[in-house]
Write a structure and sequence with these properties.
four-stranded antiparallel β-sheet; Alpha-Beta Plaits; elongated; 2 domains; 165 residues; alpha+beta
């Protein structure tokens, strides 16, 4: 079992997301991440999907997605050089002055933006690789008692060169 990445080009129509996610739930495949956005063409959306599964299950997923009428193209990104980032908002709440200073230091170390601050809270916005997002969340959980995390899922694009992830 390992993380598998798929990019789908699909028709930008009502119900397509439900059909794709329904395929995963109907077959008891677990989605780790699913991100959708329109492309340069208004009638086409691109989905970036991560599923944790074995080789046989992953091949079944790809075949079933290819059979869907609304799916234009299925791309296996698992072993392809790609550029991938995940968006994250992290709110650190109920802070004293030392906590606020620590939150700003963490933001600086992870090279993330502080986009809002209150008397006793700070809101960070970041776009990092998944492992860096996980590291930051782990550190925030260890350091602060009151945090709120919103993850947006990863987006990926194939690399032009040979550099990856």
């Amino acid at each position: 079992m390992k993380d598998r990445w798929i990019a789908l080009y699909v028709e930008n129509q009502v119900g397509v997301l439900a059909k794709v996610s329904g395929l995963f739930s109907g077959k008891s495949y677990n989605l780790k991440s699913l991100t959708v956005g329109t492309t340069e063409h208004e009638d086409t959306s691109r989905m970036t999907i991560c599923a944790t599964c074995d080789d046989i299950t992953f091949e079944q997923i790809k075949k079933q997605l290819n059979r869907m009428v609304e799916v234009i193209k299925v791309m296996d990104l698992t072993n392809v050089p790609i550029h991938m980032k995940e968006i994250l908002y992290a709110k650190v709440k109920k802070c004293d002055e030392k906590d606020l200073a620590d939150a700003f230091r963490i933001a600086q170390v992870f090279d993330v933006k502080v986009i809002d601050i209150g008397e006793d809270s700070v809101l960070m916005e970041c776009m990092l690789k998944e492992h860096r997002v996980n590291e930051m969340i782990d550190l925030l959980k260890k350091r602060f008692r009151h945090i709120e995390v919103v993850r947006g899922g990863a987006v990926a694009i194939e690399s032009i060169s040979t550099s990856s992830r």
